[in-house]
Amino acid sequence: MARRTLIRAGFLFCVVAGLGLPASLWAKDISLTQVAPGVYVRPGTVQDATAANDDAIANIGFIVGHDAVAVIDPGGSAGDGARLRAQIKATTGLPIRYLIYTHVHPDHVLGAVAFADDHPLVVAHARFAAAWAERGAYYRQGLARILGGDLAQAGAKTGDALPPAQAVDTAADIDLGGRVLHLAAYGAAHTDSDLTVYDGQTRTLWAGDLLFQDRIPALDGSLTGWLTVLGQLKALPAVRVVPGHGPAQLPWPAGAVDEERYLTTLARDVRALLKNGGDIDAAATTVARSERGRWKLFEAYNGRNAITAFKQLEWEDPS
């Protein structure tokens, strides 16, 4: 059974206050689930970013080896990252030697600033740096508006990415001491910078946002590419997966069923619309409506997904 641990406000006051973060963040609890020996996940809330949730909406966490710790996604804001760092320090005295980004989205990345004093080796997809250069300022400004307060205060809350020092083109291994993590980079799928982490010791796959459960998937890369990557991931010998959003863990490959159904439905409905001469406006209101009721935040994202899919598939060779 997964072991759940809690870090209370008193300890957080000591650690987070030392980072100079706003007092409003000191009293938040952070819970972890140990999904396998040495593999810890902080599940995010199934919401969009708000001032109340501090953009702590993604599944983030860390893996502990004999010699070092690897953080897998540092969180969605400076406070989110600081609370995760506090929990790591409460769990182990080993150094935080690695920080891994699973992709470029801000809810997985902006907490990295909380780990700057650890001087970790930052590892990401080879496309991450370019994607962050294109989008990073926009992401920070958007979150600052959500978190509110004056500009300086909101900027301090928002956080930032740390620049990658190791870029993964296809695959790489990280040795935590008696525990080797296998990293794999993919072509465009959820985004164009998706990276997974596989812990062979516990047969745990950390999928990032290549896998959603409960919260509707968000298409920011390639629909057909995403379905292809899911097929590749299903071939791995993992027994459990950590999704980017949803519960802390799911069985694998059974945990892919809902997302694969949604993405397949999205592709099928768009192709049918195109065949019948439908336009992009119709896509936004008609595609994948059979999935309504199965996903949280469906109305906020399904129309966008349908429009993105329409733009991609309208140039597809029907033969």
UniProtKB/TrEMBL annotation:
* Metallo-beta-lactamase domain residues: 57-245
Q: Which GO terms describe its biological process?
A: antibiotic catabolic process
Gene3D superfamilies this protein is in? Ribonuclease Z/Hydroxyacylglutathione hydrolase-like (3.60.15.10)
Question: Which Pfam family, giving just one, matches this sequence?
Answer: Lactamase_B
Q: Which domain of life is it from?
A: Bacteria
What family does the entry list?
A: Belongs to the metallo-beta-lactamase superfamily. Class-B beta-lactamase family.
Could you tell me what this protein is called?
A: Quinoprotein relay system zinc metallohydrolase 2
